[in-house]
UniProtKB/TrEMBL annotation, chain A:
One of its GO terms (cellular component) is small ribosomal subunit. Coiled coil: none annotated. GO terms for biological process: translation. This is 30S ribosomal protein S13. Belongs to the universal ribosomal protein uS13 family. It comes from Sporormia fimetaria CBS 119925. PANTHER family: 30S RIBOSOMAL PROTEIN S13/40S RIBOSOMAL PROTEIN S18 (PTHR10871), SMALL RIBOSOMAL SUBUNIT PROTEIN US13M (PTHR10871:SF1). The keyword Iron does not apply.
UniProtKB/TrEMBL annotation, chain B:
Residues 76-85 have a biased composition (Basic and acidic residues). GO terms for molecular function: structural constituent of ribosome. It is found in: Mitochondrion. One of its GO terms (cellular component) is mitochondrial small ribosomal subunit. This is Small ribosomal subunit protein mS29. Signal peptide: none annotated. Residues 46-85 are annotated as: Disordered. The keyword Ribosomal protein applies.
Length: 125, 473
C-alpha cells in the first residue's frame, strides 16, 4: 500500500492509472506529471521511491484537482443558473446546453448536465 | 327394446356420468387429503438447466458480446501465476534429450577458434562458454537450439571474417591496438543474431571482456526506470535498473576479470573496500542501482587501463537506438536514444569518436523482424555498403525523407558486414550435422543439399533450418 495525495493504492497498480483516478487528471496531465518526476510510463506504484512519492504528492497538492476542481465547475454552473441564463436553466433541467436537438439522443446531457456536476467525490465536499 | 325403456336407460346413464363430477367438485372444496395423482409432478415447473435462461422478452437486448463478463459454470482452471507466462515466453532451452549425440562434433576452444581450418564445419560450444553466453542473453528464445542435443554453430565465411578481425585486434602492438567497428546487415533469418553470438563466443574463448546488449528495444521502450544524470550538459539519462542488471551479467560472463585489482581512484557514492577488486566494484553497482552508472563508468575506466584484455561490445536490433526513445524529458519532449548513457557509451565507440586503448570490437546487428524504419540508418548503411563494394555508385540522399543528423553523424564512416546465404559446402556440413542428430531423416547427398539450399532462398540459414528440421511433411 502506497499513499499518494492522501489515498492509498495497491503496489501492483500502474502509476499512470493511479494518477488518473483523480478528478481532473487524464492521460495528458498524468503524462506531464510523470515526465516531470522522471517516472517511466510502465512504473508500478510500489517501485516509486519515498522521495519521488513526496514530491509527487506536493505537486498534486499545488494542482487544482479533485474537490477544488469540482467546486470550481459547480460554481460556474451555479453562476449561470443564478443569473438566470439559458445555459443555467438547461443545466438545471438536465437538458443539452448548446442548442442540440432533444427529440432523441440526450442521454449524455441527462447524465452530466446538472448543478452538482462531478458528484461529491471520494471525500465528501 | 321398447323406446320408452331405452329413453329411461339413457337418462339413467346420464345421471350416473354427470353426478359423480358434481360430487367431485363439491368434495374438492372441502377435501383435505389428496388422492393418488401423477399430475402434480407432471405439471410442476421444470427446474432450470444451468446456463439456460428463459427466452428474452420482446424488446430486450439479447446479443451480449462483452468480454470479461463472468459466465456461470465457465472456466474454473487455475490462472497462471504472476510472471509465469512471460517466463515461459522468454525461456531458452538449449538441449533436446531426444536428439542424438553427434559423436564427431568437436568443441571450439581457445586455440582452434581462430584457425583457418575450422571454416565451413559445425563446431560445438563448450560448457563454460554456454554459461557465459547464457549469462549475457546471447541465446534467443526463438532460435533453434532446443532441437539439438547441445548448442553448436556452423563456422561460415562471415564468421571467419570476424575471426580475422579478432586476430587483427590481438596482433596490434601495445599502445596501438585497433578498435574494429562493424554493423551486421542481412536479410531476415540470415543469421545476424547468431553471428553476434559467434562473435561473443570467439571473444569469450580468447579471454576478452564480453559485454552484450541483447535487445536494443529494451533500452528505449521506456519499460525500465530512468533518471537524469547530474551535471551532464546537454542532459543525459541513466537507466539504473538496466545498468545494474548489465553489471551483474558482465560479472557472470567474465570470470577472468573479477579478481583484477582496482587501480584508480573513483568517485563513487559508496567507498570501496581496501585492496578492492573489480568484483567488489561491480557488486556495489548491483546492490545499489542508484550508483550503477557511476560503477559502470568506473569499470569501463578500469578495463581501458593498459594491460587489460580487449573488449567485445555488442548490440542486437540497432535500429531501435537510432531514433527518439519512448522516455520523456521533464518538459515532455521525447529523449533521443543517444542521450541515454548506455546507448551513448555504445554509439561513441561505434561512431569512432572514442577508441579502446586495449583494442576491441564494437559489433552491432540490425534486425529483420523487429526493427522500426529509420531513414538515417538505412541511408547510412547503403552509403557504407557502397563505400566498401561500389564506390562509384554512392547513393543520393532523398531530400523528402527526414534524416536524423545525429544518427548520420554517428554512422558516417562505420563499416558493414553483409551477411549472405550459406555456400553449398556450408549447407552440406550443416545438413550432415542435422542428419547425425537424427533431426533430418534423409540421405544427405548433392541432390538433397541443392534442393534445400535453393528452397531456402540460396542458403538463407534460418530458412534452411525451417525446410530441413522444423518442417514436417
Amino acid at each position: 500500500m502506497v499513499f499518494i495525495f492522501g489515498f492509498h493504492f495497491d503496489d501492483q497498480r500502474l502509476v499512470k492509472a493511479s494518477l488518473e483516478t483523480f478528478y481532473g487528471i487524464g492521460p495528458k496531465v498524468s503524462q506531464r506529471i510523470m515526465a516531470r518526476h522522471y517516472i517511466h510510463p510502465w512504473a508500478k506504484v510500489g517501485s516509486l521511491k519515498n522521495n519521488t512519492l513526496m514530491n509527487l504528492t506536493a505537486d498534486l497538492t499545488s494542482m487544482k484537482i479533485e474537490n477544488d476542481l469540482r467546486r470550481e465547475v459547480q460554481e460556474n454552473i451555479r453562476r449561470l443558473k443564478d443569473m438566470g441564463a439559458y445555459r443555467g436553466r438547461r443545466h438545471a433541467m438536465g437538458l443539452p446546453v448548446r442548442g442540440q436537438n432533444t427529440r432523441t439522443q440526450i442521454a449524455t446531457a441527462r447524465r452530466l448536465n446538472k448543478i452538482e456536476r462531478g458528484g461529491s467525490g471520494r471525500v465528501q465536499m | 327394446m321398447p323406446p320408452s325403456s331405452s329413453l329411461r336407460g339413457v337418462t339413467q346413464l346420464l345421471r350416473e356420468t354427470v353426478q359423480p363430477s358434481f360430487a367431485c367438485r363439491r368434495l374438492g372444496e372441502v377435501q383435505q387429503t389428496a388422492y393418488l395423482s401423477t399430475s402434480a409432478p407432471r405439471f410442476a415447473s421444470v427446474p432450470k438447466k444451468k446456463g439456460l435462461t428463459a427466452a428474452p422478452k420482446k424488446g430486450t437486448k439479447t446479443l451480449n458480446v462483452k468480454k470479461g463478463r463472468k459466465q456461470s459454470g465457465g472456466d474454473t482452471g487455475k490462472k497462471p501465476a504472476v510472471g509465469e507466462r512471460k517466463a515461459m515466453r522468454k525461456a531458452v532451452v538449449l538441449s533436446n534429450n531426444n536428439a542424438l549425440e553427434v559423436s564427431s562434433l568437436k568443441n571450439l576452444d581457445n586455440e582452434n577458434v581462430l584457425d583457418a581450418e575450422i571454416a565451413g564445419k559445425v563446431y560445438g560450444i563448450p560448457d563454460d562458454a554456454i554459461d557465459a553466453l547464457r549469462a549475457v542473453d546471447a541465446f534467443k528464445p526463438k532460435q533453434g537450439w532446443k532441437l539439438f542435443r547441445r548448442p553448436a554453430v556452423v563456422v561460415r565465411k562471415e564468421a571467419m571474417q570476424l575471426a580475422q578481425l579478432i586476430k587483427e585486434v590481438e596482433s596490434g602492438s601495445e599502445g596501438a591496438k585497433k578498435t574494429v567497428r562493424r554493423i551486421i546487415t542481412g536479410e531476415r533469418m540470415s543469421g545476424k543474431s547468431t553471428l553476434v553470438l559467434q562473435g561473443l563466443l570467439m571473444a569469450h574463448l580468447r579471454n576478452w571482456v564480453v559485454i552484450n546488449l541483447p535487445e536494443a528495444q529494451d533500452l528505449v521502450n521506456a519499460h525500465t526506470e530512468y533518471a537524469p544524470l547530474q551535471g551532464s550538459q546537454p542532459m543525459q539519462y541513466t537507466q539504473d535498473t538496466y545498468t545494474a542488471n548489465l553489471l551483474s551479467q558482465i560479472l557472470k560472463a567474465n570470470k577472468q576479470i573479477a579478481d583484477l585489482p582496482v587501480t584508480k581512484e573513483h568517485s563513487l557514492p559508496q567507498p570501496l573496500p581496501p585492496k578492492a577488486t573489480l568484483r567488489s566494484l561491480i557488486d556495489i553497482g548491483v546492490a545499489t542501482p542508484e550508483s550503477s552508472w557511476s560503477v559502470f563508468a568506473a569499470l569501463w575506466e578500469e578495463l581501458t587501463q593498459p594491460g587489460r584484455p580487449p573488449i567485445m561490445f555488442a548490440i542486437d536490433g540497432l535500429a531501435h537506438i537510432m531514433r527518439n526513445s519512448e522516455y520523456l524529458s521533464a518538459d515532455v519532449k521525447p529523449i533521443h536514444a543517444f542521450d541515454l548513457t548506455i546507448v551513448r557509451q555504445f554509439v561513441d565507440y561505434l561512431s569512432g569518436a572514442k577508441s579502446l586503448p586495449n583494442g576491441g570490437i564494437i559489433f552491432a546487428a540490425t534486425s529483420g523482424s523487429n526493427s522500426p524504419t529509420v531513414d538515417a540508418l538505412n541511408f547510412s548503411l547503403q552509403c557504407a555498403a557502397a563505400r566498401q563494394f561500389a564506390p562509384e555508385k554512392m547513393p543520393r540522399w532523398n531530400p523528402y525523407t527526414n534524416l536524423d543528423m545525429r544518427v548520420m553523424e554517428a554512422l558516417k564512416d562505420v563499416d558493414t558486414l553483409p551477411l549472405k546465404g550459406l555456400t553449398k559446402e556450408e549447407a552440406r556440413a550443416l545438413m550432415e550435422y542435422y542428419a547425425e542428430s537424427g533431426m533430418l531423416r534423409a540421405k544427405v547427398d548433392d541432390g538433397l543439399v541443392g534442393e534445400r539450399w535453393a528452397l531456402a532462398g540460396m542458403g538463407n540459414i534460418g530458412e534452411l533450418e525451417r525446410t530441413t528440421v522444423r518442417m514436417r511433411v
